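Deliverable D5.2: sample structural annotation.
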Amino acid sequence: MRHYVLEEIPLNSYFSKTVYLDNQFILAAPETPFDGQLLKALQDWNFKEILTAGEPRKEYAAEEVDALEEQELTQVSLLSDGDKIKRAEEFYTAFQKYVETLLTEVAIKNTLVFKEVADKVKTACDIIREDRRFIMRVMRNIEPSPDENYLASHAVRSTIIAIIIGFTLKLVSHRLIELGVAALLHEIGMMKLPPQVYLSRRSLTPQERKAILTHPVLSFNVLKSFDFPLAVSVAALEHHERENGSGYPQKLTGDKISLYAKIIAVACSYEALSTKRPHKEAKDGYTGMLELLKNEGRQYDETVVRALVFSLSIYPIGLYVLLSNAKKGQVVDVIPEKPKYPIVQILGELTPDGKNKVQETSQEGIHIVRPLTREEIGN
């Protein structure tokens, strides 16, 4: 990272890397010009310099970014599906361990640095962009174990889903990173409650349920105490608000809820519906998706729910299904224009060149009949 004095930065230049303010706040993405309005605002705030790993240029070098992404995607495409699944498993496992360690350090050392978390989330965004399909399959196949840290597993899975929604909504890079950080830490306030309350496998008492309802406010206070950006802190505060005003803690209605909070609300709800917990069985992804759609316009933002559907389809990636030709398969990809008809990998079948056989479903041709249970697929 390099410090740039404001007066030395050419006006209307574009930095090749994300620009940070005071090691904490994401100030500008590469596609954002450093114009006179931004300079004046910084001077009014009495800031003298900015921090970035990039350098100022006369024009936004979009073609360089596109070329790099194309090169990365080409390298990924050369890997076999088995290699991609393995890489997705390694990412998921490492991300889970990172979050567990992060939460432990918050609890024991009372330390939490936005820049460090943002850098980790940026790396996660890059990997999710490349391996989304395979990461979702890994998430479906790896269920949290009973002794696993609930807050960590929920944070990891919700963050991955939130970032996927963010990609579909075409959030710019710095906003995508802020969304990811907010999703990763939205439940951080739970750690201010007794563990026997937020980790309980029994029915909570009325007093304990009342305590749980305070966690969004606690999350907001924790993040603000560590100087996290206001947008991130507000997302944690509002992630249990609902479009119809039935949420908490402020009973906000749709137009007053921040976009990050709307996305996290949908991601969290889908994760909670589709993941096994000590006190409940998981619903299959299809049933979970239907429940979200049933509440569309009443509890959850319609645009965000549709972004989830277009990202994962009605039959989400990773779901095992029975096809109309009596074959069994796993949903492996989505056609955004046809969310009811995803692409399915046929179990136990290969193409003549040795690749996994896939089937594009359709209304007129082969289609999904129903989801399969783990017992039905032999897992």
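Annotation notes: The mean pLDDT is 85. The longest strand covers residues 343-350.
The annotation will be released with the project's public dataset once the embargo ends.
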